[in-house]
Amino acid sequence: MKIERREFLKLGAAVAVGLGGGMTLDVLTKAKPAAAETTTDAVGTKVSSKALHAKRWAMVIDASKFKTEADFRRVEEACVKAHNIPDFGPDSKHQIKWTWEEPFTRTFYGVDDPYLPEAIKKENFPVMCNHCENPPCVRVCPTQATFKRPDGIVGMDYHRCIGCRFCMAACPFGARSFNFVDPRPHIKDINPDFPTRTKGVVEKCNFCMERLDQGLMPVCVEASNGAMFFGDLDDPTSDVRKILDTHYAIRRKPELGTGPSVFYLVGGGGAGA
Amino acid sequence: MLEKALSGGKRYWTWVVFLLLLILAGFLAYMRQFEIGLGVTGMSRDVSWGLYIAQFTFLVGVAASAVMVAIPFYLHDYKNFKEIVIYGEFLAVSCVVMCILFIFVDLGQPMRIMNVILHPTPHSMMFWDMCVLFGYLVLNFVIGWTSLGAERKGFPHPHWVKVLTYIAIPWAVSIHTVTAFLYSGLPARAFWLSAIMAARFLASAFAAGPALLVIFLLVLRKVSSFKVGKEALQALAKIVAYAMIANVFFFLLEVFTAFYSRIPEDMAAFQYLFGGLDGKHNLVPFMWTAAVLALLGIALLVIPRTRKNEGVLPFAMAAVFIAAWLDKGVNLILAGFVPNPFGQVIQYAPTATELMIVVGVYAIGLLILTVLYKVVLGVREERA
Amino acid sequence: MIYGGKKIFAGLFIFVVLLISPFLANIGKADAQPNPSLNTPTIDALAAKQCVGSAQFMRTYHMQLLNEWRDQALRHGEYTYVNSQGQKFTISLENTCLKCHSNEQQFCNTCHTYVGVTPYCWECHQKGATQ
User: Do B234 and B328 belong to one domain?
Assistant: First the structure.
């Protein structure tokens, strides 16, 4: 009943938008990485026509494929480089983290059953912003500096953030970091295509929205060598849905009702090949 | 009327200059924070709110000083509070100004504070807190200033002031409730996720506000022409006693729920407070001091002989006030971040810069209070 | 003479001097009107030297336009701007605005310095982004 009503409202909104703005909600049936096809706009800037769209972006992480430290480092470093994340050292209070590695007991804090198989207890997991369906950070933000996009991505407007850190208190996943000092001097090698941040604002993983808009998969997914999958949770034919339909995946703190969009395959119940 | 604050004895000016020096020191510390960022504080990724927000939370509570004298006087016509209502209201004004300043110094991008008004967001409790706090500030200042002006000319209050006093009473309840909602609605923090958070905030506010008011009234009795009456003090002391008992009772309800249910997440912060967790126990001394002072304060106030002894009364009030400060101005906020979302215990300790800014904001509050009280005294001395 | 007149007039004098001090400090130093340079290799190569809006529109509203662009791109994921002529442009500070206006010193700073405004774009955005 509830879901039907919501779908109806969504449809209504889509129709209204379609009528009003002559715009279409282009839902790709398959969100596969595509070589960005481009056209050229009025001043010769290339316009990507292959922006990826979804109703709700989601990620499935096959933890069994993160075997060595190198697997984690590769993914983390790809993200750090792409998003100009500063390095304050591992013990600094000023650490900024978008995606990083945590052991099972911390990733799934509260699920630390003493009788789990050793293999699971020893498994490590990449953690990041869960891009919740029902994000508490968005609910508490007094300026809408953090917001949920129509495609389910929880974004940040670094221009609007006043740095009150209410979102950090509200996030059950410890996914948010605050720029306690100017981050720029601490960025190893600056990627000129992505902005850095200023001191006094909160930041976190953005599901690589800047890449999706160019038709590219998130950089961690690309660097993971097939250990991470990304797609539309609303599309039964998407990669993530196909995996979730056939494998037992768990989410962090599902009991809080935030509806995380990051799923974990635990204990070697691997997906795909 | 403000000119009354410009004439005073040597003691008055020494006090004012002392406060101004503290404000200057606080301001210089803030300039450092403004330049470098909140990295000059002890806050971290894991304990992302520290003393600033804790002081804000506590001072919202002290602002209840006004309503606890206003209800008996305006609603029940309790004449003994006639002279002291204005002291309660002006104490609330000073507290709310400090609240706003503590929020301001906690912001990473203070120059963007107007974004809260530019992009009003009704689903954020912070937005509502801003509205009710600002409203409470205006209400108390207008009520206090107007009735003092009327008193100076020997007129009764204008009628609309009476209307405002009625509005101010439920409004006072709203500031504690909405401030509690900042915390009690967060799924991430088991320690704060409690339906009686707002009730606890009201109880501790109704204890801490009048307790501080009694202390200030006793100070005024020593240093000024205003000699507060015995009955008024006793009435305030009883209010403090009842409120503090309710406050401790509510706290024990939380302890029972956590430890009888034995839900690990609900127990964790209490374990950290009372005995330490993972070998970390920064807050343990604060918790036990608060517990002992709370019980001591209640005992001194409940036993009629000690309550009626005006030599003991300031100590009883100080015990209650400090217990409430440790509970809300330190423990409640800091322990809320323990354990962090990964189950780790990360501790926080404020830095010298941070402490200096806290002292500076308190000095601003005391200066405002001093000036307002001086005006009241001046007006009343002139009439006498 | 009014009571305490000397103090009052001395106070008033100090107040007025402080009030007009910025004007006193600038007497006889008329600043030349800013004359921003539009010439960059990219602009020179354009057939029609036309920004996304008219010069008058851009002069008045560039800040509002940038705000709108940010909200549109970031919040709605829409990267195409259609101007009043129906021309389409990609919404991007680095790749659309700065591709033409690559001369920050002569273009941005000339006017902003004149009116005493310090844009903080470069604290986060970067000059020399690649396409």
Answer: yes
pLDDT for position B130:
93
Report the alpha-carbon distance of residue B128 to residue B107 in Å, rounded: 17
Question: Is the CB of residue A199 less than 8 Å from the CB of residue B37?
Answer: yes
| Residue A221 DSSP code | H
- Identify any residues that bridge with A19 across adjacent strands, giving them in sequence order: none
How many other C-beta atoms lie within 10 A of the C-beta of residue B309?
13
Cross-chain residue pair C130–A149, CB shorter than 8 Å: no
In a domain, B208, yes or no: no
Is the CB of residue A213 less than 8 Å away from at least one CB of chain C? yes
Same domain for B321 and B335: yes
A100 touches chain C (CB under 8 A): no
What digits encode the pLDDT tens for the residues C100-122?
888 888 888 888 888 888 888 88
CA B337 – CA B189 distance, rounded (Å): 7
Handedness of CA B78, B82, B87, B90 (dihedral sign): positive
Does B contact C via 3+ CB–CB distances below 8 Å?
A: no
Q: Tokens representing B294?
A: 């709370």
Q: What is the pLDDT of residues B56-87, one digit of tens each?
A: 999 999 998 788 888 898 889 888 898 899 99
Sequence-distant contacts of B228-234: CB under 8 A, at least 24 apart: B228/B83, B228/B84, B229/B80, B229/B83, B230/B310, B231/B80, B232/B80, B232/B81, B232/B83, B232/B84, B233/B310, B233/B313, B234/B307, B234/B308
Which residue, among A205, A267, A214, A254, has the nearest Cα to A51 in the 3D structure?
A: A214
The residue type found at C29 is: K
Asked if B297 and B316 count as a contact pair (C-beta separation under 8 A), the reply is yes
**Could you tell me if B43 and B77 lie in one domain?**
yes
How would you class C119 by CB atoms within 10 Å of its CB: exposed for 0-12, middle for 13-18, buried for 19 or more?
Answer: exposed
Q: Do B32 and B176 share a structural domain?
A: yes
A255 neighbors A96 (Cβ within 8 angstroms)? no
